[in-house]
Amino acid sequence: MDTVKILEPCIQALGSKDSQQRNEATKRLATLMKEHHLFPISLIKMNGLKPLIRLLGSKEAASGEKAYAALTLGLIAKNNVKHQEAIGAPGLTALVKLLKEGKAVERSQATFALAQLLQGQPRYQVALVKLGALPLLVQQLSGETEGDFGSAAFALAMLAQNIEAHQTAIRLEGAVEVLASRLHGESSGDRIDAAFALAHLATGHAKNQEAIFEAEVVEGLMLLLNSSFLAERMNAMLAITRIADDYEPAQTAFGEVGAIASLVKALQCNTARQAALIALHSVAKSHAENQQAIVQSGALETLVRQLRTGMRAERRHAALILSTMVESNEEVVQMVDQLGGTIPLRREQSLL
């Protein structure tokens, strides 16, 4: 496949004075970026990023052109650090300006592109806040274009990652309440994105954990935890893990509504097992009632089996759960020993 030959007419058309040609070119490029991983690579090598970025700020460009140009940049940046770096500060700045000044469809695609650029890019996280994009992204949670919520939720999750000041600022802008309400949304995608964003806002941030809990998320997350869709269950477990971590009110609330039983059930699913183990540890750590609920559920046998025969990560997380349970409960110590778990537990504890 000659990607250069296919891309060349589109890249040339980006500089055309004919708006229709530019629109068709940006639309075609957005389509091609999805078709094969070689197209983004070739476009970058052909210096196709510059005319795309320039188009974002062009006064002559129509709304559709700018939207497709932003979408193309987002698709190029998606899950690729090298491509994100190639787009760089000029692309970031142009996209933020489009987010500030563009029409609804332009803002929507700018949000998508920014979300992709932020993945694993601490420099971009800081730059985006300095450019004033954070409150705009929170506003996009209530955007009028389909996909606005999902893109904004993902962007805010990436913006919050590992930066406490950003987590705080996002909460203070009112994002928690909007995200919490979408746990009950009609769209499965929105429910998943809401849980994912709430998890990142809660991570290691006590005030955010409290604010999220007080936004009455327990019922919504339990609906996701018991969903028939794996992605909903996985993101519910992620959110429960981060919200309940060392936060007793959330641990108690999740225990009272049956989260232990649902998480124990999730241990039977190969794909969900590790997430369920992590969530169980978060909910049960230093919480006697929830630990007792794990015992009463009959999960000790499953935990010991994971301790003995599970994959490395599963053994580690099973050991974390059992370690916190045997510390203050002689009955659990005896049960674990009867199940043949004492020696494997000691072995894993030495590796923790």
From TrEMBL:
It comes from the Eukaryota. Gene3D superfamilies: Leucine-rich Repeat Variant (1.25.10.10). This is Uncharacterized protein. It comes from Effrenium voratum.
